Structures are given as structure tokens and as C-alpha cells.
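Input record (Table S2, row 262):
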Amino acid sequence: MISSERQEHAISTKLVSPSAVSVDPSKTNDYDSFAEAYTAANETNLVNAYYERPAMLALAGDVAGRRILDAGCGSGALFAALRDRGAIVSGFDTSAGMVELARRRLGDGADLQVADLGSLLPYADDTFDDVAASLVLHYLEDWGPALAELRRVLRPGGRLIVSVDHPFAVNLIHREAGREAECNYFDTTNWTVEWTVGGQTALVSRWHRPLHAMIEAFIGAGFRITVISEPDPDPAARELFPEAIAAMPRFLCFLFFVLQAG
Ligand SMILES: C[S@@+](CC[C@H](N)C(=O)[O-])C[C@H]1O[C@@H](n2cnc3c(N)ncnc32)[C@H](O)[C@@H]1O
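Output record (S-adenosylmethionine complex):
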């Protein structure tokens, strides 16, 4: 586990509440309000730029000519990297502010939409060879409708490549804060943190989910698990973040899956 306070260029994180019940939901996950600051951090920090994104790209492999949907595309960094590798990419995000930044990055011709993972998606059946769902599923309490939609828009045999909060890391964050009673590993639990990023603060609420519940959701939606990955950071991180990597050359932060649509 690596805590984001220990990194350079970090989003600093403070555990606020075990549950959105005690936080006004309209005040959480307002990516529009910190889209620029989040994007600047995401492009340079250890956990996104030198850990999560390289891991997603490595799992995707050779994507030349593949039609890929970037679900929860944010400001489009993964979209851009996949497109640079020859994929034909579409993306959507629930935050209009993030989609606007993605459009600025990717150009007017990019296939980008504001849409909500968990609702019906604006794509026909069997459209994509791959879906990348990078750090988005953990915003949803119920993965069933979202996974059913992603399964629908994937062609049979297509891949769903996922990164989510590592459930053990979330549990450890609560333990380190002396608040283990608020996050029983075995429960699907909402937890809220305050992010400070680029001088702004924002409340971010996500759903902790134990490993067995993730696997049940994937299987229940008709996916076969082909890879579960707990990768190393990108080798470049050693020079860019020497203190963080020396202190913790390997760490748990996110958990990665490659799933095949049945
Ligand atoms: C941590 S950011 C990750 C962005 C991008 N995937 C990346 O890895 O750089 C999470 C993104 O998920 C989006 N998001 C959260 N809930 C969503 C939902 N239900 N449908 C679509 N996007 C959602 C947020 O707006 C935000 O852009």
C-alpha cells in the first residue's frame, strides 16, 4: 500500500467519513469543480501516470486497429495513449468538465460523450473489441447494471480491462487511521476522502468492495476472468520518485482485471 501523502506531485488524501450517509451526496465526486487540478495531477503523479496507466496499457497489449471504449475516460489521457497506439477509441464520462478537457486534448473529431456508467449507454450492441474501465467502477454501489451494459456493447469474446481501488489497500487505509471498525473488509462499504489537489479540496466518495464480491459481479454479468494483476510501478518511477520507490518499491493501490465477454 502506498499512501498518496508520501508521493511527489500527489493528490493528498484525508479520510473523512466511512459513509456518504454523513456527507451531503451533492457535495461529493463533483469532478467538474476540480477537473483542471485533477488532470494536472493525474498526468504527472506516481499512482496515475507511472503506475495505473502504464499497467492498463500493458494489459491492453497491442491495440492497433481495435475498437476500444474508454468508460469514465476523465480528461482522456488513456484515450490518447490508446489512440497513439493505433486503436479506434470512443470515450464517455459523467463529468461534462472532464469531457471538455478531453475534447481539448483529443480534438473536435474525438468520439466523446457525457454519459453515466450504470445507465443505458449510447452505443449499439457488439460495438467494441475492448472496454477500458479505469478507476471508475468503484464509484458505483451496484456493479450489475454497469457490467451488463459494458457486456452488451462488447462483441462476444471482447475484453473488459478494469482497474479499481485494491480492497486490501482500502482496508489498510482505515487500519492505519485507527478506524478499522468503519471498514469491515467483507462488507461493501461507502467511504469518503477529502482530496487536496492543486490548492483545491474536494470530497470523493467511493465503494469498497471485497474481492469475492468483485468476482461474483464479473461472473454474474457473463465475464470470464483471464488476468488478475497487482503490477509494479513503471520502471521510470524509480528516477522520478526516488524516495517513494525506495521506501516502497512494490505497493498495493489498485487491483487490475482482464475479463473476457462470454
Ligand atoms: C479517478 S477519475 C479517472 C479518470 C480516468 N479514467 C483516468 O484513469 O485518468 C474517475 C472518473 O470517473 C468518472 N465517473 C465517476 N462516476 C461515473 C459514472 N457513473 N459514469 C461515468 N463516469 C464516471 C469521473 O467523472 C472521473 O472522470
